[in-house]
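User: Here's a chain of 289 residues. Predict its fold as C-alpha cells.
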Amino acid sequence: MRSKSLGDFVKTAGSALSEGPIAIVLVEDDVEVATTLRHHEKAGFATILALMPARFDLPQDIAAAVHRIDYDTSADGAVETAVNSIIAAAPGQWIYYCFNAEYLFFPFCETRSVSEMLTFHAEERREAMLSYVVDLYADDLSLFPDAVSLERAHLDRSGYYALARTDAQDNDRPKDRQLDFYGGLRWRFEEHVPYTRRKIDRISLFRAKPGLMLRSDHTLSDEEYNTYACPWHHNLTTAICSFRTAKALKSNPGSAQAITTFKWHNSEAFEWHSRQLLDLGLMEPGQWF
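Assistant: Prediction complete.
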C-alpha cells in the first residue's frame, strides 16, 4: 500500500479511490503522524492517503490501514497539487484534507461517523463544508519546546471574529455568504504571521467534481463551495484542532525566541470532545441533531 510518487498512485489507484469519504493527510514533519492517521481512521474515513517524505517511518498497524505516498510536502504548491490530483481522479467522492498533528472534530463525532454527517449534509443539497482551524498548544513550553502535547493541549476559548470577504473583480463588494475568519495564535501573534496566512477558515470537506480546483488560500474554484451556509438556514460546520501554527511559531527562528508561552487568560484545557467545541461556538450543528 505504498506508492513511490503521487503520479504512480493516481495511475494505479483503481478501486482505492472508489470508496469514500477520502482523507488526504499531508505530512510535513514527524510530529504526531500516527495519531493523526489513527484519529481519522476512527472518524470513519473509508480511504486514507498519507502523503509524506520517504524518510519518515510509520508503525506497522497504521501502515497497513492507509495508502502511503512518497511526496515532498515542502515543495511550492504541494498542497494544491496533491489535492487537485485526487479531485481529478475521484469525481463524485467526498474529500477531506489536513496536515499531521491536526484532528477533525464534527458535531456528535463520538457517536456518529463522518459518512453519516456527509450523508445528511448532501441531503441538504450542500457540496462542501466550512471548517475552522482551532489552534492547539502545550501549556508549558519549557516541558514541550515544540508546543505539542496531546495530554496538555490547550485552546483559546475566545478571540475569534469574522470580516466580510470582498470580490476584487466586483468593486470589492462583499461576497454572498462568505466570510474570512480570524483568531487563535495567528491573531494573538500576528506580527509573526504573514497577512495572507492569518485566516483560520478552510474548506476542508467537499465533493469532487470535474474542473474543481483547490486554491492556495484554502478556497475552491466554485464560489458556492466557499459559502458557510445555504441561503435558507445554517448548515453544519466542523473544527480542525491543530498544532500546526504552534509548531511553526516555535520552529521559526524569527518567532521562537520571542514566544515563551502561548497561554493567556482565555486559554483552557482541550477536552478532546465535540461538546466543548460546540459550547464555544467553534462549530455549528445546523439542523443535525
